[in-house]
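[Meeting: bench + compute handoff]

Bench side (C.D.) handed over the final construct sequence. Compute side (W.E.) agreed to return the predicted structure before the next meeting so the bench team could plan truncations. Sequence as handed over:
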Amino acid sequence: MKELVEVITKALVDSPDEVVVTEREDRKTMVLEVRVAEADMGKVIGKQGRIAKAIRSVVKAAAAKEDKKVIVDILD
């Protein structure tokens, strides 16, 4: 899951070197925290959060195949 989020996020931003995805487990849930450069924040979130929602949907679909719950947090 972490690699999937990294690939999608790096494709969206101008500074792919500054994309950092950290993974942590909370009981039965995996939390992926995404950090990007300040200038790229809008590109990852999108208008009215549409791109962030799309990223979460793709990850949720991939996680459903593995019967896991994954949360994607975009941090500033």
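W.E. noted at the follow-up: The first strand starts at residue 20 and ends at 26. C.D. will use this when planning the next construct.
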